[in-house]
Amino acid sequence: MPAISAATGAAPPPGKVVVEDIYGFLRVLDDGTVLRSAAGPAFCPATFPDSHPSVQWKEAVYDKARSLRVRMYRPAAAAAGGNKLPVLVHFHGGGFCLGSCAWANVHAFCLRLAAEAGAVVLSAGYRLAPEHRLPAAVDDGAGFLRWLREPRRRLARRGRRLRPRGRHR
């Protein structure tokens, strides 16, 4: 496993005590205040590349009100051939507290998954605890699946291919 690092920045305010510290990514103070690292972890670029020669990807917002994003990965050969591909939905790990679909390790995994599985990979973000208590993350996942399902149903009636754009309810 490559070394990772993060820092939440400033020290806690005077008189406050850190009661939980998750590798500097997330600290919880004794009064319940949450300090989260502004930047994602620094991963080794050789281990987690940001592109793949046979995969195209783009990012979209699927829930504008909550600023939730999805990254969509598609094998380039499929884009040229117009073939239908299976769709894999990915929710990043992190115990509902850490992570992002934009972190380098998740991005590299989805690039490789799309290339090797020959499938469209959709990596959806969700709100993180403790700022957003459970079941917020689960609700976001269900909301993503609804967002994905609805345009497909409308477009299928018109005989068009699925091309998610924006938020649909």
TrEMBL record:
Cited InterPro entries: AB_hydrolase_3 (IPR013094), AB_hydrolase_fold (IPR029058), Carboxylest/Gibb_receptor (IPR050466)
PANTHER family membership: ALPHA_BETA HYDROLASE FOLD-3 DOMAIN-CONTAINING PROTEIN, ARYLACETAMIDE DEACETYLASE
Alphabetical list of Gene3D superfamilies matching this protein: alpha/beta hydrolase (3.40.50.1820)
Protein name per the record: Carboxylesterase 15
SUPFAM superfamilies reported for this sequence: alpha/beta-Hydrolases
Domain of life: Eukaryota
Source organism (scientific name): Panicum miliaceum (Proso millet)
Molecular function terms, GO-annotated: hydrolase activity
Domain Alpha/beta hydrolase fold-3, residue spans: 88-152
One Pfam family of this chain: Abhydrolase_3
